[in-house]
Input
Amino acid sequence: MEEARAVLARLERIEALEREGAGVAPLLAELRELVREATEWAERERDPRARAAAVALAAAGPEDDSFVLTPPSRSTATLARP
Output
């Protein structure tokens, strides 16, 4: 449950940075932490889909922008190719 709260709080910080017109560096730092926190959450939950998404994000690396994280609701997020 704590991991879910951390991920939701991180998403709120990212949204606030976007609203404030923050630069790329702060947004990327928050996104990297989001991936780390989401990975921890997936590992604890042992959900195969969540683990696969976390592995794909981690493997994508900083230059790969082919994945988009889209939060369909406040409690879940999905990973999709645009």
